[in-house]
Amino acid sequence: MNVGVLAVQGDFAAHARALARAGHEAALVRRPRDFEPLDALVLPGGESTAILRGIARDVLDPPLRAFLTSGRPVLGTCAGAILLARRVTHPAQPSYAVLDIDVTRNAYGTQLDSFATTVDAGSKLDGLEAVCIRAPRIERIGAGVEVLAYVRRTPVLVREGSIWAATFHPELTDDARVLQCWLGSSGSCNESPGAVSPSNGHG
Questions:
Q1: For the chain, which terminus, N or C, has the lower number of CB atoms within 10 Å?
Q2: Are the beta carbons of 54 and 43 closer than 8 angstroms?
Q3: pLDDT tens digits, residue range 27-69?
Q4: Whether residue 171 lies in the annotated active site
Q5: What is the CATH number of the domain that holds 172?
Q6: Are residues 68 and 57 in contact, defined by beta-carbon separation less than 8 angstroms?
Q7: Active-site residue flag, 169
């Protein structure tokens, strides 16, 4: 499987290393033609407005939009999740709106308010460590969105079809389950040890 990591700004190098640990060599995506051989794509963490500027500067918007609507696997983490969301606030900004969630940027505060924690008991990836750095918060999830993990009863890992989003940084730990489940090399994410009730509603 050819997995690409958008490499215009942010922690794309950490994602490439994490993908290697999960058994996949990553291609760094910097030019329009870099999308052509890809089977899957990561939109990394970083600064979402800076990533949008880099996409515009490097004329990546048309091939990126085409990829996001192609049905191939996409994973957005932190800033990448913001780019995928239907609606972005605090402040509002453009997004690709391919995942039916609403997010608030920097919802937990500044860089100094970053934290690491374990996802709530009963999440489908039980025991997963979530590293949250200037993390967005998912405020609304659409009816077609499945929640795979919660932190403090707030969704932090979601999927809708082939589009996945994490508000934390799975690439910063040695636990490869998020990447393995996203790329279909592990079935563990399809097995829920219990139910967790979200603090916000669907729809």
A1: C
A2: no
A3: 999 999 999 999 999 999 999 999 999 999 999 999 999 999 9
A4: yes
A5: 3.40.50.880
A6: no
A7: yes
